[in-house]
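Issue 218. Parser rejects a valid record. Input:
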Amino acid sequence: MLYETARLALQAIRRNALRSFLTMLGIVIGVASVIAMVTIGNGTTERITAEIGKLGSNMLFVMPGQVRPGRTGPAARPFTAKDADAVRDQIARVRAVAPIAQSAMTVVNGGQSRTAAVIGTLADYLVITDWSLAGGRAFTDAEERGSSVCVIGETVRSDLFGRSSPVGQDIRVGRINCEVVGVLTKKGQSAMGSDQDDLVLLPLRTFQRRIAGNSDVNVIMVSAAAKADTRKVQADIERLMRERRGITKGREDDFSVNDMTQIADTMSGTTTILTGLLAAVAGVSLLVGGIGIMNIMLVSVTERTREIGIRLAIGAMERQVLAQFLVEATVLALLGGVMGIVFGLGLAYAVDLYLDLPVVLSPAAIAVSFAFAAAIGLVFGFFPARRAARLNPIEALRHE
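Output the parser choked on:
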């Protein structure tokens, strides 16, 4: 019985192959969109987590000011190098501390120039970011007191020096000349799309005295010791900064201490929410596809009214006619679901390959999309099937 019903449904689909394909197209697009969006979103989340993980899960950022959604607080005074020294000397379980001051500036060598991020910091910056050198060396303790030396990123090196080695040569950063003592290994683009290699590192005091003209520090990077409880380190830094900045009890902080784990969780949560919203929007096309199935099935019932009348006249029961059209609608939806899965996975793979994202499949999204497609076939195919089953045989036979 079921086999015969399915056979008749497939025969009806084959008789109108083009119309059947166009009917399935809404389901194909809907399922493909959901799968592609979820897969690309998962890949983005995985990439962001991996990029942040490269910096280490035991890293903390100390920044002046508090950031709140929809609210801009008063400008907070920046830190100084002494604040970073206090963190290094007074906080237990700290592996390295790197104060940072930075600005975008023009870097020149001969006839070549480019605008790069110029960062004033200490040699511990390389320890905290786990960034090795492709050539040369980092700053020495003596050079950190204010020498005109620098370490450059791969993008700056390739643009200013081509294939030649820059170590030992001078470049102009803004209005000062400095000797290149090291070249960083290539890191490539970050998860946000910025070029991590487009930078020049200077000793902090050199940057403050000869470029910035002040002693401001924009960020203090802190790396906790291995297996240290970063929450305790974070709390200790907050207490120290409140004391140094003269914040009395009851007043809120004019700075923030962010754990890398918290940042990773926040960014992953944001991409997950965006992925869900995009998948929900894409899922609307599944409903549109269901309406298309219902529309075509109603047309099919009208076209085959005489055929239905003959079947009812020779003894077919209403439930058999109902089952035939219901199976036909469900088969259309299921075929569309299968095609949508294949197309969606192919699209997601192509986009992930183009954006250099990991391909992270979601079996749950595939299963839910396929089940939803089948449910749409049943729901939207029921009304046309019931209409066909309730046709009056005599009136159906007289239909032209």
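Fixed in the parser; the record now loads. The first helix runs from residue 2 to 15.
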